[in-house]
Design goal:
Elements lengths: L5 H11 L9 H11 L3 E2 L2 E3 L2 E3 L3 E2 L9 H31 L1
Antiparallel strand pairs: 1-4, 2-3
Helix pairs in contact: 1-2
């Protein structure tokens, strides 16, 4: 996907995913942060209560703008299509075998 950095995404996943308080959410969040060059998560406020989490990714910006959101959605769609194609291929192989 244009504007996404696969190498940085992998680097962010291996470095940051395990730091997330959710054992599952850290993987995609770190990958997206790395791919888009953002620093996601981090300290934030929910209903006036400060949540002191670590950042995912090393990006220079920690606030996504509308262009980042569009890039993230495109990246998500491409990844989703690839996953669907993989499952379709595996299904055909299993049925034929």
């Amino acid at each position: 996907v244009k504007g996404a950095d696969a190498k940085n995404a992998w680097h962010a996943v291996w470095r940051d995913a395990k730091k997330h308080r959710s054992p599952n959410a850290g993987w995609p969040e770190a990958a997206m942060a790395g791919a888009l060059g953002l620093a996601l998560a981090g300290p934030r406020s929910y209903g006036g209560v400060l949540v002191d989490d670590v950042f995912m990714g090393e990006g220079g910006r920690s606030e996504a703008d509308s262009i980042d959101i569009r890039r993230a959605l495109k990246l998500y769609r491409v990844a989703d299509y690839l996953l669907i194609a993989l499952f379709a291929l595996v299904s055909v192989v299993v049925i034929v075998a």
